[in-house]
Design brief:
Layout lengths: L6 H23 L2 H18 L7 E7 H7 L9 H14 L3 E7 L10 H12 L2 E11 L2 E5 L3 H6 L2 E4 L22 H8 L28 E3 H4 L14 E7 L11 E3 L8 H7 L3 E3 H14 L8 H19 L4 H26 L5 H34 L5 H8 L8 E14 L2 H5 L4 H20 L5 E6 L2 E6 L8 H13 L5 E2 L2 E2 L2 E16 L4 E6 L1 H16 L3 E4 H7 L4 E9 L7 E8 L4 H19 L3 H14 L4 H15 L9 E3 L4
Amino acid sequence: MKLSLTSNRTLLAAVFGAALAAGTGLLIILTALGGALERSSYNASHYLRGRIRASEAVLIYLDEPTYKAVGRPLNEPWDRSLHAKLIDRLASAGASVIVFDIVITDPMTNRPGADERFAEAMKRSGRVILAADNVDQGNGVYKISRPFDLLYDSAAGVGSAEMIPDADSVIRLHTPEAQLPSLSWAAADFLKADIAQRSGESTAVRWVQYYGRAASLPAVSYHLALDPANSPDEMFRGKAVFVGGRLFTKMITERKDEYANPYSFWIQRQDAVKWGGFFSPGVEVQATMFLNLIRGDWLRRPAVRMEWLVVIITGIVFGFGLVRLRPFAATGVALAGMAIIAGVAHLLFMKWQMWFPWLILTVQVGVAHGWSVLFNSVQFYVQKRVMENTLSMYLSPKLVRKFARHPRLLQPGAEKQTLTIVFTDIENFTSLSQGMDSDELADFMNHYFQNIVTNCIHAADGTVVKYIGDAVFAFWNAPEAQADHALRACEAALHVRGMDPMKMRGTPVRTRMGIHTGEANVGNFGSFERVDYTALGENVNLASRLEGLNKFVGTDCLISADTRALIGDRLMTRRVGLFTLKGFDKSVEVFEIVGRPDSAEPTKKWREAFAEALGAYEGGHFELAAMAFRGVLELKPGDGPTQFYLGRLEDLSKEPLEGDWTGVTLLREK
């Protein structure tokens, strides 16, 4: 049996798996799928982290309840004199900075004096930041639409209200300075935040860290903020106050100047209604970016080269490693790997405000796992088929199906096991095969082996070990334990005897068999490249010698006393005598299989006569033995063992005995 050496194939599969997983990761980065997974990684990191309390800013919403409270239609410009009242109210409450996320480019014509009151309030406060539009026209050219002069000159600062949403409407990047600082940067700069005092930082790349789902920052409606009874001073004292619109129409999911939030993709509709919507108002996003700046907890992302390196290493490690594991083990390792990747991403996000597209890595692990399962499944199927084909040369179909599910037969090593061992041989094969055409001989032997293996040995669930010329070596009780292994082997011998006669060049072929039961070393023996499932030991040699003894005593199936003891009276046998065979010091008691129990009565007379003659021979009564053996021939003409002993008696009459007579026949030939 050839041992399947799959290490080279597995190594090639592992290298391919590494290239596949690494290549998949790089390909994802370069395609639209990469962008989707990047965005999902960003969102998932926020969701896994949960909510963070951020109370340094308060939002004041120009919302529908406010319009209703002051009796204004939604499509009418807001009375800026109310802005003046709000500024005075917030300044008296101790707000640190007041940011209007409302772009006011034109004077108010329908309410004389409103703009002046608004400007005066800003001057008195000295802490109001106004918004401006800063639209990218392409090629680095921006169109700035700032507040008109009266308001511009009265404000403490102006910042761009522009924000750049991703394809899924989530604002992930801080708006960098482009001729005009962002609104959040202008507010942080006013408060002398550390980051705002560093040169060149206003153009740096920063990622927004959201503190929770939409509407998670402290907020109050505009009309309630005007009334200290509804909004006490403590709500605004020392806080940055952002004022902006939050206008809904018809349904909760219809929006105006609002953006998706990393949490928007994880909440249910009923929760969105309860919490105030799926989307974050633009003013809340501005406040969030401001909080990032003053808290110093904006998100960072590794350099592109570092991300590519991580993708390549992940692909190599999992692509190379998983394919070397069985599917169940590979699944466990893959799941553990995904959990570790998510855990590392979560730790980096929580502790160092670092995020990266870690879901790409999980896809790589999934691809590596898929390749591992595919390769190992195909390889297992091929190995199983090869094993079945290999085992079919040794085992019966029933045992092939059983051991194909438990491939221990292909594992190196051996163990001591009691076996019933059978050797067969074609009588006079050498002389019969001389002069035969090679194709003719091959056809005959293939047909012969097919019959003897399929119809005899495998029919009794025996294991064919090997073919040795015209001989077959088989045994029972391994690899599967068989309580009746001796009887099965003898039954197989009777099947051989009962086969339809085969002829070689017109001469009927006779098969001789030797059967012995004893302990042997059974298992896989051989080199690294090839092993044979076989049995070794003196008991194997003894079975072979019993097969050879047939040639001398004229029988076709001899068994040892050990085998005879196990089959008992379930088959009819006759004792042939004691023999010392070549290569063995001790004598062996030998029996011939006569037939099944129904042959007892027809053979009784000649068996009893033979037993009496053999007793006389072993007792040293040679003349009496000779007369008795001749009597056996009258009952069973041509009996091989009888003729053998008559020949032995003739030889003994010509030579004096050496030493004491033991009744044991010594054979020096095989």
